Amino acid sequence: MTNPRKKAVIVGGGLAGLACAWRLQEMDWEPLVVESSETIGGRVRTDEQDGFLLDHGFQVFLSAYPVASEVVDLEALALQRFRPGALVHRQGRTHRMMDVFRCPQHLLGTAWQPIGTLRDKWLVGKLRRKALRMSEEEIAETKDQTTERYLREFGFSEGMIASFFRPFYGGIFLERALETSCRLFLFTFKMFAKGYATLPADGMRAIPRQLAARLPSEAIRCEATVTSVSPNKVTLASGESLEADVVVLATDVDTARRLVPGSGGSAVQWRSVVGLYFSADQSPLKEAIIALNADADALVNNVCVLSDLSPNVAPPGKALVSVSVLGRHEEEGLEARVQKELARWFGPEARQWRPLRTYHIPKALPAQPPNRTRALRTHAGHYFCGDYCETASIEGAIRSGLQCAEAIASKDP
Ligand SMILES: Cc1cc2nc3c(=O)[nH]c(=O)nc-3n(C[C@H](O)[C@H](O)[C@H](O)COP(=O)(O)OP(=O)(O)OC[C@H]3O[C@@H](n4cnc5c(N)ncnc54)[C@H](O)[C@@H]3O)c2cc1C
User: Which listed CATH number (2.60.40.10, 1.10.260.40, 3.10.20.740, 3.50.50.60) goes with 7-45+205-265+371-411?
Assistant: First the structure.
């Protein structure tokens, strides 16, 4: 007779929880994912509305992510690529800054754009070579400091930092002060140099859906909120108890700390963003590229037209415009203010765009300052995974889920 499989209850059906469950299943465990929302995916979800596919806030999958790209079947996602580079809008004019290593035809054009100096453009090439040569271990050992300080020490001019790095990495770190650790900057810079920013043709939801599809349907329970945990039991809001050999906390960091008091770590600061979607009759960009706002007093940080990338995301004859505004903006009339600003950028037709939906995401990314202490992965018999244990990204969430599963299996006699 074979031994019954060991049971793991995983609290949270985001990417970390799903990756952990899948890996445990591969190692012959019986996982059960318990998710409070009506659907899996956590921060990576997509809504369907009037024929549009709306991700919960603009995000991209970097095709060079080393672990995520191994775990996820990229071909099945039908990844659509952004052009490597950006359009930088500053004081009423738009400048094209391309990755000239991938788009050599833009070498002269990019070199002479008034965004940064010629030396800055040369430094971008130098940084690119450096990041591509660095191993992950070397990046992890780099003197930790803010991205802003790192860029200054590397020799970039104030103009280049203000007009390019603040809006570009502001859109990734969800903060334009560039207070995020330079190690994350180097890692992300390397990912952009090695691969492409992409979106699955069917929206970002395709990533968690693919992981979930590897589990039997009875291994995922949605609309089940966990209210308390012990190392071998979770209790749901309904009062039901679920017993297991192991309990994994795969929630956001705040919930994990609440459910397991004393699990350590200091309170996490969150980076917030508002993602707005508009329907337009025509694409204001007409190409799959990210447009950045370099004006210091700008409300909008970045804009792109997702239907230029993937026709699936909008009904025929319509363009889906995605706009990111950093921070919290709970005030009334945000859409109108955004459209007013975008009219100065794209012309008066921007005022005619139809607002589709606005996603306020106060807890988008845990802040990642330099020298942060790594979150606990185990505490008093509990296991933890989530982006906060690694890096606040799709890669970090998936990695942490896999690492958690490995840690559980390694303790399994
Ligand atoms: C707007 C935005 C833009 C981003 N941009 C990018 C990007 O471009 N590239 C990139 O790589 N990453 C990006 N990220 C980051 C990335 O999406 C996250 O790091 C990752 O999805 C986090 O996954 P997770 O599993 O750790 O956490 P979560 O996705 O937060 O999953 C936690 C899950 O736990 C559930 N849960 C919480 N409490 C309970 C409870 N009591 N009981 C049961 N379930 C519970 C939640 O409902 C949730 O489903 C972005 C994130 C946001 C929000």
Answer: 3.50.50.60
